[in-house]
From TrEMBL:
InterPro entries recorded: AB_hydrolase_1, AB_hydrolase_fold, AB_hydrolase_sf, Epox_hydrolase-like
Protein name: Pimeloyl-ACP methyl ester carboxylesterase
Any Gene Ontology CC annotation: membrane
Signal sequence bounds: none
A Pfam family recorded for this sequence: Abhydrolase_6
Start and end residues of each AB hydrolase-1 domain: 26-258
GO molecular function, a single term: hydrolase activity
Keywords: Hydrolase
Amino acid sequence: MVGTPFTVQVGGARLAGLKLGEGLPVVFLHAGVCDKRMWQAQMSMVAEEGWQAVAYDRRGYGETTSPDEAFSHIDDLKAVLNALDIHAAVFVGCSMGGGLAVDFALRNPGRVIGLVLIGTSVTGSPWTSNEAESQLEAAEEDAYERGDLDMINRVQAHLWLDGPRTMGGRVTGAARELFLDMNAIALAKPELTLEEKRDSAWDRMGEIGAPTLLMVGDEDFSALIDRHEYLSEEMPNAFAAVLEGAAHIPSVERPDLVNTMLIEFLDAIEGGDDEGEHGDEEE
């Protein structure tokens, strides 16, 4: 994937990003076990189809560097958009990236043309685990207590890439190598302890009126599958799809499937509000 690298300085942080193509912007927000590279296939496809693709590494990930200072991921995202002169965009977020997109949309509804949320987190949402999931979570906690970063990475690959109810090592080849590399970089970063706490979004999901595509893999955590079913009923303009044979990072595991659904969604909303009609609304 050939694109134009960019950096945005926010406080003491240097946010590293990549942009590709021209047209209406699609901003990709990565999962908490990945970095911007998880969107390589989607960014290339979006750019080829006449959209502008943008992704960046949040603090604590990838090529971004940051001291341990007070910060807000929402403010960082807004700084990236403003630096690139992006007034409104479609936001594509996976896991924690989806949670950021949701929180941004609640605070800045006029800057959101549409949302694609994949295995999304939601600030303040409930979480329950079944027995198989709990066993892997216990192994992850044990590895953290021992400070074994390599073991943490391997357990998290099982949890998030393979899926917690499948055999470890289900996903192989380049997809696994990429996951392990992205997550190893994140695990090795210094801890950031001063992130601003975000308000719960769980009881406000019905306020998000932007067209939304919800995707979740059928091998993902049971809580996330249940969450997406709830969101599909709660969000007024949401369409939900369950991806067969995929877990939490389908953009890496099944890029063909994600690309097809993403471009269909983008084509469907392209005839909607003109970018210039969106106001910069903020709570």
